[in-house]
């Protein structure tokens, strides 16, 4: 499950309940509902902060759900592909959100959970515990098309992409900073959330036009936007 609260102009999206916050259809639907609510209520000065309770930020797709719901005539792989397609618009929702977004990664972020974290504009991580990890090469799964494009768009260094995607590197916070995956590392979970909130508030105080902000964001990642179902950028009237 997850919740959405508003503190001043900051929307706080919290992954709660299940300690691993695995992405199944129910959680994905709730995430989309909360992001839609934040979008509808956004104003100049809004920002989104996403955080998670417990040991994990998110441990990726819910493979247990896939196995349990496959049924005698289906397969767990088909259910996994279903989740892959359901998650695609979550990336689109974050790309299209008319406000700055910040993720406070206070636990493990694996596979689709890592993609969820890096879908935010800014990512902060605790250094004392937790890793980022793309497990696909280790468990024998290929990457969805939009995952591959996502990492080409979001991670500038070919060496970093190789280490994460081909070597299955379990990346701690300090290394994630050095590899350009995240913005900063902090001593513990509390300080990570505190710094993330401060950043969200700082960004909100700029009071940028949300439509302009989201269009500029989308213009940075045109190939990714196409794969997640976002059309080309729009235009707005300049104040100059």
Automatic annotation (TrEMBL):
Transmembrane segments: none annotated. It holds the Pfam family ECH_1. Gene3D superfamilies: 2-enoyl-CoA Hydratase, Chain A, domain 1. Pathway: Lipid metabolism; fatty acid beta-oxidation. Its EC number is 5.3.3.8. GO terms for cellular component: peroxisome. It catalyses: a (3E)-enoyl-CoA = a 4-saturated (2E)-enoyl-CoA; a (3Z)-enoyl-CoA = a 4-saturated (2E)-enoyl-CoA. Keywords: Lipid metabolism. GO terms for molecular function: delta(3)-delta(2)-enoyl-CoA isomerase activity. InterPro entries: ClpP/crotonase-like_dom_sf, Enoyl-CoA_hydra/iso. The keyword Lipid metabolism applies. One of its GO terms (biological process) is fatty acid beta-oxidation. Belongs to the enoyl-CoA hydratase/isomerase family. This is Delta(3)-Delta(2)-enoyl-CoA isomerase. It comes from Daucus carota subsp. sativus (Carrot). The lineage of its organism: Eukaryota, Viridiplantae, Streptophyta, Embryophyta, Tracheophyta.
């Amino acid at each position: 499950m997850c919740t959405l609260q508003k503190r001043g102009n900051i929307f706080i999206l919290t992954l709660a309940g299940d300690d691993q916050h695995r992405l199944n259809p129910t959680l994905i639907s709730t995430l989309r509902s909360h992001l839609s609510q934040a979008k509808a209520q956004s104003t100049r000065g809004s920002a989104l902060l996403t955080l998670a309770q417990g040991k994990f930020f998110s441990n990726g797709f819910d493979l247990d759900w896939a196995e349990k719901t496959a049924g005698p005539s289906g397969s767990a792989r088909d259910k996994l592909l279903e989740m892959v397609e359901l998650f695609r618009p979550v990336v689109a929702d974050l790309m299209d959100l008319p406000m700055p977004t910040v993720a406070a990664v206070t636990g493990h972020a694996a596979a689709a959970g890592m993609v969820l974290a890096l879908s935010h504009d800014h990512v902060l991580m605790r250094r004392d515990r937790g890793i980022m990890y793309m497990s696909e090469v280790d468990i024998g799964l290929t990457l969805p098309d939009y995952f591959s494009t996502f990492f080409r768009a979001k991670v500038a260094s070919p060496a970093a992409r190789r280490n994460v995607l081909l070597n299955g590197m379990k990346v701690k916070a300090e290394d994630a900073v050095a590899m350009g995956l995240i913005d900063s590392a902090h001593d513990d979970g509390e300080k990570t959330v505190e710094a993330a909130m401060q950043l969200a508030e700082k960004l909100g105080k700029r009071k940028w036009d949300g439509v302009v902000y989201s269009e500029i964001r989308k213009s940075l990642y045109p190939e990714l936007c196409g794969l997640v179902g976002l059309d080309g950028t729009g235009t707005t009237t300049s104040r100059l």
